[in-house]
User: Fold this.
Amino acid sequence: MSSKIYQFFEYAYIAMALFSIYLVYTNWEMNRGRAYLFGGFAIVAIFMFFFKRNFRKNLEKRNREQ
Assistant:
């Protein structure tokens, strides 16, 4: 059960990254500073996706070995 919860949050980070990229696109012409801020959020969200994915896979591997 906890693996599914971890997996849900992994994909929630991807959704946040996609939304942030959309906000970068819409704010690029009018407010460049805000666009950079959301660009940073997108990068952090993508990093968190891969970090959480690696953490979940290591946890599953550890549980299988026990």
